[in-house]
Each structure stands twice: as structure tokens, then as C-alpha cells.
Design a protein that fits this description.
Elements (H helix, E strand, L loop, with lengths): L11 E6 H15 L3 E2 L1 E2 L1 H5 L3 H11 L3 E4 L2 H10 L4 E4 L8 H6 L3 E4 L2 H14 L3 E6 L11 H9 L7 E7 L11 H15 L7 E2 L3 H4 L9 E2 L22 E13 L4 E2 L5 E2 L4 E6 L16 E4 L2 E4 L9 E4 L13 E5 L5 H8 L3 H6 L6 E5 L4
Parallel strand pairs: 1-19, 2-10, 3-4, 4-5, 5-6, 6-7, 7-8, 8-9
Antiparallel strand pairs: 1-11, 11-14, 11-18, 12-13, 14-17, 15-16
Bound molecules: pyridoxal-5'-phosphate.
Amino acid sequence: MSVTAIPPRASAVLTIDVDAVAANWRLCRDRALPARCAAVVKADAYGLGAERIAPALAAEGCREFFVATIDEGIGLRRILPESAIFVLCGPLAGAEGDLVGHRLVPVLNSLEQIGLWRDAAARHGAALAAAIHADSGMTRLGLEAREVGALTADPALLAGIRPVLALSHLACADDRSAAMNGAQRDLFTRLAASLPEGMPRSLAASSGIFLGAAYHLDMVRPGSALYGINPTPGHSNPMRPAVRLEARILQVRDVDTPMTVGYGATHQIARKGRVATVAVGYADGWLRSLGNRGHGVIEGVRVPVVGRISMDLTTFDVSALPADTVRPGAMIELIGPSHDADAVAAEAGTIGYEILTALGRRYARVHVGGAA
Ligand SMILES: *Cc1c(COP(=O)(O)O)cnc(C)c1O
């Protein structure tokens, strides 16, 4: 990442490497060839900023994007006038016009949603594109096997609908030994065969891409891997880190027994040392579960979180570093290449996805790379 001037008033800086995200998309694309590679940019590109990331991926040649909600689709349409934009939640009653007006392609998850879209096409007076989601084992969204059967038995259910993609979603793709992966692939292949002919099929998200060619079908839909999350947990991360979070030190305290740190006095000082307080807390998505468990990094040295995380503040034991390194105004790295979102997640008892999507709104955000 290039060095960028940090505004003096920034109490914390989130640096997003757009070039790394683009490189991660190319890696997914190359892995999946000859399948097409879309990009999932829901939740504001997993918290990293769709406004900068989506155009960079479009410039790499990505033609198809997925968002979760209709509002996200409307926002993305302003950024990407030409791309195909799929909306995973599908049509909602009364909101069909929003989808049509912004040329959004809904994922139809139920016979009810198919009915909404069929009626919308009749009102529109022309065929409307849609993806069809067949559930192969997530039991969340999607048509059950018998509902796919109903479509086969009665093609009029799809009157006015131009099906452009059949999709399904894997439950256990991050565990390559899971028997469910093959079972879901086989079921989805069977269900897709009874959907209208010629529909491209998409099963793999990030981890599914790394399960191998049998899972790529016609299109893959990576999200997390683009943002640097390891799609192959337990194995080395093939993706480039894309996020760096640094927090400004506000104050450094000399401490000694019998002092305690923070709410609830949960950290007892055991020996003479120093504690640094930075301006990031759980209101910034620096999760409260990191209290007495997480750590930061200063000049390559790990500094443990001591005490509970406050709403706006976190305290670190910086006794291991010389006093002139740790002074007000210096930064502690909370997320970075040596301590990525997956590593923070392990300390917080969650997954990297939640660390990224929780990233707060108060950070000074710096995007490096991509188009200005
Ligand atoms: C979020 C999502 C994806 C992307 O998943 P990742 O694991 O982040 O790659 C793909 N498909 C569907 C249906 C999703 O909901």
C-alpha cells in the first residue's frame, strides 16, 4: 500500500487497498475460468466502500454484480450504469417498480416471488429478466425441489419472466471435507436441469471457487475473498490483504499495582508498566468481545488489549515498547497484514466477514489504488 497523508484530526484511519481487491478478483476469475466471475458487493462491499470498489472491478472486466437489497441495487446502479445487478433478496410486494426502473435483476427465491415478478412483467408489457434460486440445503431462501417440479410441470408460472441465471448456495464450502458440498452440487445440478433450458448455473461463492472445477459451473460469485478474507480456512490465505485499520494514541499512562483498567476493573495491573489508550471502541465495530483478548501491533510488536472495550476507547499494554515509540499521536495497528480480519475475528469469537461488515462510520477512510 502506498503511504497516504493522514489528516491530523483523524482519531482512526481505515485504509482500503482497491488494487488488492482488484487483484483478488483476478485471482478468483483465473481460478474459475472458463466460468464467468461476478462480484458480490452487498453491505457496501463488505464495509469497504462499493463506490470505489465496484467501478474498479468493472474496469477489470467484471460484468455482473450481486447486492442483498433493492436499496443497495438502486445505489449501485448510480455507480454502474451498464453492469448487470442482481438483487439477492428478490422482489418485495409493491417494490417491483423500483427493480424495473433501475434495471435490477431480482433473484426469485420462492413461488410467491415468481408470482410477483410474473405480474410485474404483465404490467410492464415486456419480459423481465430474473435469476431463479433453487435451495440445495441452506434452508434459508430458494425453491424447494417440489417447487422446482411445479415450474417444470407448469411453464406458464414463468410467463413474462426471462430466466437468466439459476443459482444455489453452499452451506459448508469452507470445509473441503464436508460431504454436504458434493450432495448440494449434485442436487443443484439435477434441479437446474429441470429449469428452463439454457440457463447458466451458479453455485460457488468464495470458498466454493477453491473446491475445484466441479463447483464452478457457469458463474462464480465471490464476495469475502475479494476483500482479503481467507476462503480456505485452515490453509494459507491465497488472497491479498485489503484492509488496514490504525488507531491514534490519545494518552499513555504509567501504571503499577494495585491499579485496574477500564469498566468493571477487569484488568488488574500485575507489574510496573505502561498503558496506551486509543480512540476506537465498540461503536466503531471494534467488538466488545475483544476486551482482554484482542491485540494491536506497533512497529511489529504485539500489544495486548487490557480491560474492556469502551464505546469510543480501547486500552493496550504497551510496556514491551520503548517510551519514545509509544506517545500520544502515534498509531496502533488494529487490523493489518500481520493481523488480518480473520485473526481479529478469531480473537473476537467471530468470523472475518463480521469484522469487515462491522467497520464503523467514524474512521477517516482512505482508498488507495483504483481510479481516483
Ligand atoms: C453473500 C453471498 C455470496 C458471497 O459469499 P462469500 O462467502 O462472501 O464469497 C454469494 N452468494 C450468495 C447467495 C450470498 O448470499
